[in-house]
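Model it.
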Amino acid sequence: MSRVTNAVIVGAAQSPYSRHPPEGTTTGSVLADAFVRVLEATGIRREEVDGLGVASFTLVPDRAIDLAWKLGLRPRWLMDDGNGGVSGIQLIQHAMRALDAGDAETIVLVSGDHFTREDFTRLVDNYNRTTAQYLAGIPHGGPNALFAMLTRQQMERHGLERADYGRLAVAQRRWAGLNPVAVYRDPITLEDYLAAPIVVEPLGRLDCVPVVSGADALVLRAGGDGVRIRALRALHNWDGQEGDGLQTGLSQIAEGLFADAGAGPEEMDVVSVYDDYPAMALAQLVDLGYVPDGDLSRFLRERIDEGRMALNTSGGQLSAGQAGTAGGTIGLVEAVAQLLGQAGDRQVSNARLALVTGYGMVLYRYGGCANAIVLEGPS
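Modeled.
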């Protein structure tokens, strides 16, 4: 983003995540619930909403227009996005341009999914044509197996042990204990982490993001008070799946992102990185410049274990849960709450700047998409 946008984020809300949602729950119902909650949180009337963006894997065969109809909306701007972990920032990228162009004045962005066990199996085996054609028949075990291989590569490159990854999981669970809507809030120790059953070596149960049902929502308006967008950059398919997967597109856009923001990585008061697996959270932090000497083990001990970095303060997906495409929005909802001073017991003191990343959409071996946004709280 090389120019200033007038768009601001005026509020965020979440339809509570649940591992075992009530009978009758549907993807449409959790998205609608998030929509209603964000209007209540911001005091905006339904009639004022003239733009709707939707991100979901399981809303199909319905689309954004079907949800708009069921919500009673008559939008002038409408968008569907199915790009998983980058969908939240990507929706903002398009919504802010629509607001600047006058295509809408008040846009609600909703993302989320409801999964049954069968739904998730179908999604994993038919994630894209490449997966269905080359991987599903093995069977390959879904993303756990792919990211187990990436984790092993990272361990060998950086001299990491399983306990190093446990420091991240334990720290995020501490944050989750302060978040009343996190699915997993009970504290865990490093010993608990190491004792958890192995899923795919070297990944244990606490390394694998728990699948839940739920939804998130954001409201953007054309100007006024709210959370300002200081910078936004994206780069997808940057290496054509020919790299080792331990670098993301963030490695190519970080310098420009921070230049646009007029602030460096250490000036971010709150950081939310996409955390489907600890290894990929660490890979993004390296790409963003938080580990300049490459010593991940020391970074984890000194910055994460000792609580010197406000990272994934909602508990992240590893403890709050991954509600499908809401995984691309959970960091945004948390950043907005922190910057508006609405984070309750986990509020970071004097939080002014927040960095949020998106990552994902496994094309074959690893995620092909990456984006990031820097947000500034109202003065």
